[in-house]
C-alpha cells in the first residue's frame, strides 16, 4: 500500500531563458485535469532565478501553488541542483504524483530523481487515467509503437511520469487567476554546482521545431539507396512547401542528421500531408507519423506496410516516379 | 576480480550496454503481450554502440581502460564479446534470475552496485536510451545512486584540463557542459560511427577469460529489492494498437500513367501543397 499521507499532483515547471517551456504548459493542462478528477490541488516546482513572474504565469495557466526556489546558480537547468530541489521538496511535502514534461532536461531529471527517491517513473506517457484504486494509470507507447503499455506504481509514492511533448493540449491562461507562490530554501553544497554550462549555441536552422510544426512533411527512407539520391526528397519538399524528414534507417545510414528523424526514437509529427518516399513503414516509423491527416506513399514494394496507412500511393520505382512527379507538379513550361 | 590489463594512465571508463532485439525483429507475443526475446535476433542496443565508440575514441586519444558492463542472461555475453572485439579491455556480466523483470529503478541500483564493485573509475558511459524500452532512465538513475555529476544526450565527449566536456544536443541547440570526474555521460544515437570488431580483437576474445560474471549476491544486492518484486512499477496491461488501414487510392503501373493519376487525385481532393 502507498503511504497514506501522500497528497496532491505536482508538475515540474521548466523555465528556459526566461520563459515557461511549452511542454510545461502542456503538463499543467493535464495535471489540472488529473488534480480535478482526484479533487486535490495542483502544485508546481520551479527552480530558477528571478522567475517569480514566470511562476505567476504558471498560476494563470492553472497551478494552485508554485514552490519557487530561487538562486542565481539555478538560472539555467543543471542536473544535480535541480534534482536536489525536487528530492528535497518531494520529501518535505509528499505529493502523490509528479509529472515532468519529456524534454531532454525533464527526462533526465526524472531519471535521477526516481533513483534517489526510490519510486517508479514511466517515460514518455501519452495518456493518463485514474484507476478505481486511485492509482495513476500511466500509458505509454511500447514495443516500437505498436502497443500501449499501462504502467501502475501501486506501492510507492510519488507516482512519477514524463509526458511526451506535443501530445497534451496546452493549458489556457486565465488572467488574474489566483494562487500561492511559496518560496522554499534548499540546502545546497558547493559540490551540487560542480557542473558548468560553458557554452550554448542556439541551433541556427532550428529544423526540429520546424519539422514538428510543418503542415507538409516529405520524408525519405532507405529506398533512396544513398545520400546523393536523398536530394530528390528536398526537391519534392520545395515544390510542395514541405519540410524534409527521414526514416531511422536513412539517418542510421548517415544520409541525414538525426534531427530530421521521424519515428519512435525520433520526432512525432502530425502534418496535414505526409509524403513517404522509399519508406517501407516499419512500426517504429509509423509511430511517429500515423496521425498525419493524409499520407502519400511511393514505394516499389506493393506489399510494403506503408500502403496500408496511405491515403494515396504509387507502387513503382521511386527513381522514375519522383522525377516524373516533380515534372508534373512544376507544370508545363518548366 | 576483473582481469586487469597493463596499468593505464588514461581514464578508466565503464560502458553500460544492453542487448536488445533487433529493431526490425521486434515481435510481441500475441497471448502474453510481452516482448519476444527468445529466438529473436538481437544486437547491442544501438545507442550503446555509440557510447562504446566514444569510450574507444577517448582511449585512442588519452589511453586508459574500458570495461563493458551488462545486466541480463548469459546470452548477453555475445554483446560483451563484440564490445571487446571492438577494443574494450574487459567485461562484466551481472546475471541472476532475481534480476529478471526489473524496471528502471532496481536496474539502476544493480548496475550501480556492480560499478562500485568494479572500483575506482573516471567516466561511466551509457547510451541515451534503449531501443526496446526507450526510457533513458537508467543512466541518470546510476548517476543519482552514485551521486555523480551527469551530462546526458551528448553528441561529443572530450576530456580537457582533467574535466569532461560533453556537447549536449537539446531541443533548441547545443550546450557544452563541463564537469569533474568521476561522472556519468549518456551518448546520443547517431553521433559517431561505431567501429567494427578488429581481427586482433576477435582473437583476444577467442582466447577467452575476459568476461567476469557476478551474481546479485556477489555485488551485495538483496533479492527482495530486485526483479518484479523490487520494481516500483508494473506493466498492468498492454493494448495492441491496431492501426486501421486507410484503404487509400494506390496507383500501379507505368509512372507515365500513375503520376498524372496521383496528381489529379491529389488536386481533386485539394491536398495542401499540390
Give structural notes.
The complex is a heterodimer of chains A (334) and B (274). By secondary structure, chain A is α/β, with parallel strands linked by helices. Chain A has helices spanning 22-38, 52-61, 79-93, 104-117, 207-213, 231-240, 248-252, 283-286, 306-309, 318-330, and strands at residues 9-12, 15-16, 19-20, 42-48, 65-70, 97-101, 121-125, 127-130, 136-142, 147-152, 159-163, 180-183, 196-202, 216-220, 243-246, 273-277, 294-299, 312-315. Chain A folds into two domains: 9-193, 3-Layer(aba) Sandwich (Rossmann fold), CATH 3.40.50; 207-330, TPP-binding domain (Rossmann fold, 3-Layer(aba) Sandwich). In chain A, a hairpin with a 2-residue loop joins strand 2 and strand 3 (19-20). The N and C termini of chain A lie far apart (72 Å). Chain B folds into two domains: 12-225, HUPs (Rossmann fold), CATH 3.40.50.620; 245-274, no CATH class. In chain B, 27% of the residues lie in helices and 27% in strands. In chain B, strand 4 (65-71), helix 2 (77-86) and strand 5 (90-94) form a beta-alpha-beta unit. In chain B, helix 2 (77-86) crosses helix 5 (199-207) and helix 3 (104-118) crosses helix 4. At the A-B interface, helix 3, helix 4, strand 7, strand 9 and strand 10 of A face helix 3, helix 4, strand 7, strand 8 and strand 9 of B.
Please describe the topology of this protein.
The complex is a heterodimer of chains A (334) and B (274).
Chain A: E1 9-12, E2 15-16, E3 19-20, H1 22-38, E4 42-48, H2 52-61, E5 65-70, H3 79-93, E6 97-101, H4 104-117, E7 121-125, E8 127-130, E9 136-142, E10 147-152, E11 159-163, E12 180-183, E13 196-202, H5 207-213, E14 216-220, H6 231-240, E15 243-246, H7 248-252, E16 273-277, H8 283-286, E17 294-299, H9 306-309, E18 312-315, H10 318-330
Parallel strand pairs in A: 1-4, 1-6, 4-5, 5-12, 6-11, 7-11, 14-15, 14-16, 16-17, 17-18
Antiparallel strand pairs in A: 2-3, 8-9, 9-10
Helix pairs in contact in A: 3-4, 6-10
Chain B: E1 12-16, E2 19-21, E3 42-44, H1 46-62, E4 65-71, H2 77-86, E5 90-94, H3 104-118, E6 123-127, H4 138-145, E7 150-160, E8 163-170, E9 173-180, E10 183-187, H5 199-207, E11 211-214, E12 234-240, E13 249-252, H6 255-268
Parallel strand pairs in B: 1-4, 1-6, 4-5, 5-11, 6-10, 7-10
Antiparallel strand pairs in B: 2-3, 7-8, 8-9
Amino acid at each position: 500500500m502507498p503511504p497514506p499521507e501522500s497528497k496532491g499532483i505536482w508538475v515540474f515547471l521548466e523555465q528556459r531563458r526566461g520563459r515557461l517551456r511549452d511542454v510545461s504548459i502542456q503538463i499543467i493542462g493535464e495535471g489540472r485535469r488529473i488534480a480535478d478528477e482526484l479533487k486535490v490541488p495542483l502544485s508546481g516546482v520551479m527552480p530558477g532565478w528571478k522567475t517569480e513572474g514566470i511562476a505567476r504565469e504558471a498560476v494563470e495557466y492553472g497551478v494552485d501553488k508554485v514552490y519557487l526556489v530561487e538562486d542565481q546558480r539555478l538560472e539555467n537547468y543543471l542536473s544535480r541542483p535541480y534534482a536536489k530541489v525536487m528530492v528535497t521538496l518531494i520529501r518535505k511535502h509528499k505529493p502523490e504524483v509528479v509529472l515532468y514534461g519529456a524534454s531532454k532536461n525533464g527526462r533526465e531529471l526524472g531519471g535521477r530523481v526516481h533513483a534517489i527517491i526510490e519510486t517508479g517513473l514511466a517515460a514518455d506517457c501519452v495518456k493518463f487515467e485514474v484507476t478505481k484504486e486511485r492509482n495513476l494509470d500511466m500509458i505509454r507507447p511500447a514495443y516500437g509503437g505498436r502497443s500501449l503499455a499501462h504502467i501502475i506504481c501501486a506501492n510507492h509514492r510519488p507516482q512519477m511520469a514524463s509526458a511526451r511533448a506535443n501530445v497534451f493540449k496546452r493549458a489556457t491562461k486565465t488572467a488574474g487567476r489566483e494562487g500561492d507562490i511559496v518560496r522554499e530554501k534548499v540546502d545546497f553544497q558547493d559540490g551540487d554546482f560542480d557542473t558548468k554550462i560553458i557554452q550554448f549555441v542556439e541551433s541556427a536552422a532550428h529544423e526540429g521545431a520546424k519539422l514538428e510544426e510543418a503542415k507538409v512533411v516529405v520524408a525519405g527512407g532507405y529506398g533512396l539507396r544513398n545520400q546523393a539520391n536523398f536530394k530528390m526528397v528536398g526537391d519534392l519538399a520545395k515544390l510542395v512547401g514541405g519540410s524534409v524528414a527521414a526514416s531511422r534507417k536513412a539517418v542510421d545510414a548517415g544520409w541525414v542528421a538525426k534531427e530530421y528523424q521521424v519515428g519512435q526514437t525520433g520526432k512525432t509529427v502530425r502534418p496535414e500531408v505526409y509524403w513517404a518516399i522509399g519508406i517501407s513503414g516499419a512500426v517504429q516509423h509509423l509511430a511517429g507519423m500515423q496521425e498525419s491527416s493524409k499520407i502519400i506513399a511511393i514505394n516499389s514494394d506493393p506489399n510494403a506496410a506503408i500502403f496500408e496507412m496511405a491515403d494515396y500511393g504509387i507502387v513503382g520505382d521511386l527513381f522514375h516516379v519522383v522525377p516524373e512527379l516533380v515534372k508534373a507538379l512544376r507544370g508545363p513550361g518548366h | 576480480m576483473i582481469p586487469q590489463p597493463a596499468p593505464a594512465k588514461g581514464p578508466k571508463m565503464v560502458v553500460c550496454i544492453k542487448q536488445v532485439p533487433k529493431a526490425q525483429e521486434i515481435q510481441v507475443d500475441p497471448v502474453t503481450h510481452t516482448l519476444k526475446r527468445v529466438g529473436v535476433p538481437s544486437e547491442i542496443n544501438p545507442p550503446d554502440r555509440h557510447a562504446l565508440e566514444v569510450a574507444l575514441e577517448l582511449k585512442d586519444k588519452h589511453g586508459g581502460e574500458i570495461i563493458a558492463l551488462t545486466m541480463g542472461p548469459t546470452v548477453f555475453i555475445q554483446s560483451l564479446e563484440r564490445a571487446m572485439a571492438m577494443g574494450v579491455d574487459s567485461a562484466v556480466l551481472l546475471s541472476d534470475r532475481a534480476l529478471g523483470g526489473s524496471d528502471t529503478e532496481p536496474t539502476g541500483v544493480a548496475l550501480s552496485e556492480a560499478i562500485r564493485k568494479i572500483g575506482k573509475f573516471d567516466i561511466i558511459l551509457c547510451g541515451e536510451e534503449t531501443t526496446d524500452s526507450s526510457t533513458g532512465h537508467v543512466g541518470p538513475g546510476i548517476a543519482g545512486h552514485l551521486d555523480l555529476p551527469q551530462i546526458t544526450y551528448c553528441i561529443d565527449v572530450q576530456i580537457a584540463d582533467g574535466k569532461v566536456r560533453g556537447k549536449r544536443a537539446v531541443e533548441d541547440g547545443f550546450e557544452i557542459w563541463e564537469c569533474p570526474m568521476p561522472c556519468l555521460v549518456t551518448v546520443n544515437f547517431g553521433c559517431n560511427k561505431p567501429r567494427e570488431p578488429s581481427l586482433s580483437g576477435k582473437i583476444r576474445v577467442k582466447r577467452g577469460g575476459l568476461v567476469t560474471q557476478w551474481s546479485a549476491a556477489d555485488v551485495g544486492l538483496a533479492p527482495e529489492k530486485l526483479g518484479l518484486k523490487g520494481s516500483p512499477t508494473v506493466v498492468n496491461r498492454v493494448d495492441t494498437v491496431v492501426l486501421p488501414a486507410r484503404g487509400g487510392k494506390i496507383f500501379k503501373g507505368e509512372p507515365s500513367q500513375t503520376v498524372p493519376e496521383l496528381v489529379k487525385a491529389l488536386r481533386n481532393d485539394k491536398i495542401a501543397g499540390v
